[in-house]
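Table S2 (text version). Query chain:
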Amino acid sequence: MSSDDSDLLFPAPAGPDGFEFDPGSGDGLFGDGADDGGLKPLLGDDYYMRAALKCAQQAADAGEVPVGAVAVKDGLIIARSWNQVELLKDATAHAELMLIASLPQVVGDWRLDGIDIYVTKEPCAMCAGAMVNSRIRRVVYGMRDPRCGAAGTALDVTGFPGMLHNVEVTAGLMEEECKAMFQEFFRTVRANARKKKSGFTPPA
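Corresponding structure-token output:
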């Protein structure tokens, strides 16, 4: 991994990519007006899920499965991430895990008390377990995953009795929008695979 790629895992503070805490970025309570329309004392869950959808689009544009996530504390988006499995050649580089790995630099502790994560797809067992272990307060997800979802659908890692910590879950927020992005991505992947198999080369 090059020095440039390392910024994807541990981005520089207050960079233009929005990974780090940046009260002037237009996210959270006190925006610059260009994105939020100015001061917003209260932002609903939809606002943060839209931010996660923007991250998911960045993943799709890079050829990654379109899952995006943002972390919110005290009404501010303090970090963002998206799937980077293909880029990093790392099966663990899911949006949620990348996000959790970056947060101790922002808050100064591995215990992420009071932080909510908004993610476009229900977390898998790996990501749900990381949320439990890092003491995430709440996860809000968009698309349910009946086969592998571990935040109450296929499994309930986030609320499993006997765990040292349980994560509050809000399921299905903006589910149709999240699902549509997923479906469009895989429709494109299948179409490209058919073209490749047939030997078709699109015109330049």
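Notes on Table S2: The radius of gyration is 17 Å. Strands lie at 68-73, 76-82, 116-121, 138-143, 168-170.
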